Amino acid sequence: MLSNFTATDIVRSVEASLLLSLILFIPGYVVGWLSNSFRFRERRFAAQALLSTPLAVAVVPVLIFLVGRYPKVLWTLLGVSWIAFAFLFRPVLRRWSQIGLRRVPKVVWIGAALAVGWAFLAIASLVDLQFKDLLYFSTIAYDYSTRTAFTAAAARAIPPINPFFAGTPPMLLRYHYFWMLVCSLATHLGHVDSRQAMYGGTVWAGIALMSLIAMSLKFFIGARERLARKALIGCGLLLVTGLDLLPTIYLYLRMHLVNPDMEWWNEQITSWADTMLWTPHHIMSVVACMVGLLLIREPAPTKVQRAIAILIAGLAFASATGLSVLATFTFALFVVFWVPIAAYRRWWDDVTGFLGAGAVALLASLPYLRILMQPGAGSSGGSARFFAAEIRQFPMALGLIASLFHMPADHLPYKRLILLALLPLSYFLELGFFFAVGALRIRSIRAGSVRMTRNELMAWLIVGTSFLVGSFMRSTTIGSNDLGWRCFLQAQLVLLLWGAVLVDEWSSSGRVARPGRLEWADSMRVLAAIGLLGTMYQVVMLRVYPILQDHELVDPTMAAWLDQDLQLGKRTYALRSVYGSLANVLPPGAIVQYNPDAISFIPHQLYSGHGAAMGLPLCGTVFGGDLLHCEDRAKFVVHLFEKPSKADSDSLDANCREFGIDALLVDDLDYAWRKHDSWVWTRKPILANGHARAFACGDSNELARFARAQ
Description:
single chain, mainly alpha, four-stranded mixed β-sheet, two-stranded antiparallel sheet, 4% strand
């Protein structure tokens, strides 16, 4: 085992990336060959490789969910796909041996370089950084800590149990967790943990998105000339975001504020890099939705081929639902608008395609939807609604306007009308270069240089639906406006595709749009440059922000979930060391209990790898389970860490047995640690250092043997 945590994470993340090719690339190749979707069998291997990952994202997640409760069946199906791929790949190997690698097209090498470059960026952005006895996770760990726990739960059972409410009775997880199911399979194939499997999955999310860009340019935008060039430009535009850097600079100069994530200055339209790193499952949902759409729009030579396309499209929509309810909701709303339009225009192939695929999707996703619709505790006021009507917020602009009238922003008269008037400015700042792309596309349509084809109308409806949801709806199931952030992904994809076509045309013709309009060139270059610099700044800050806070270089109140005592690096190293030792002793199904109310929750969720009897306040019942079942364990667990007494040691094992707890872990931020007559100091730990102590509790034979060996 590597002694350095950073080296361990890098090696294991690369291993996870390679292992996930067995789950994502190879089954997708076999699906493409068997179904002959997009005339798969007629294409060269480079094109087949581009199609394989998106096809796998469309089909594999829902199949894992449906078959995963029967592990032998799941692994048999995967094994059959690997054998089939080995057989199908033999002609490709023979062809390569005949022509040699030197004759492989240049564009293939460039595409491979892009994939490797993305893998390097993703892994470097996500792994822990170790400096002697200091260890720092990235800002992105704020989200990955929760999803790592979900991935570990998926590795133990499908459908997974809420890892923050482990024990008896089991509480099924309520979340869009299909991406966690996919990543969890890597933990069964190699020496990777759930966190490293997620990092490997993030690598494949970027590859799938880049493949989708090439697919969409060909089958949706209809690009024929210089397709490879346009695809490479589209992949390059993933590095361009809006003008978020400008308000970021303003906040620093005026108030000396530095956000952990550049997007947090506003109701965000998230950059591509930020979305791929923070929430790859939303990206994968968009990939699945678009593959389904492209399959429905692809002409089929026979009725059988058409039926196969509709079947796979339905599975794609079912996968998309489990990958991201938020992204799929926006796409489903687009379909609701599109089907009547298609019927009015007598585009019956679209009508039957979407209705047929929708029926397949409903049937395939029904078991998952039943779990998702189970009652559970809500947050943000406990609203049971998925969304509420609200005009998109623009806090900075409202604050500046309110300051002119010397009143709080909430008291501004006609606040809703002001927000409505500010929407164009908000979108211009959030989209930047891509806002201008949309404006130029409208100009080209009005000038007649771009025809309003069926696909063009469909693209504009996708954009319009995203803006409709983002402008007038917001999430109510969680505190942040996830719906208002993720609904724009489809619109961002369309704008990126148009941008790739536009940049290619300009660079090829040496002019912008039309003679006499060359002023667009300089403006677009400036917007793209600001967007590129913004992405570079954002990626660096996501990586180093916890380090900056630990050295008092940023305002600690901007990230209250990071340790405020300048001991983040040492405490994280200590906690990961203890959790790593426990993982070597305990079985996967063991329950490890930490303080569920800890402000510094990230290391516990990130490194535990086990369920907790109460892993979040209220047992995380927002993710599944009945709050009534949480009350008894809450009395014990919260009391144990926040209100310890001398009598705890006598009843500790009995309570642990009642709730199935095998180990207790306490760190030096817990009140029980600071109370020197508590069980933390009267009970002998099995593992201990200056920041963390672990104790055997209940009936854990493994820990008992380990304690005796110590």
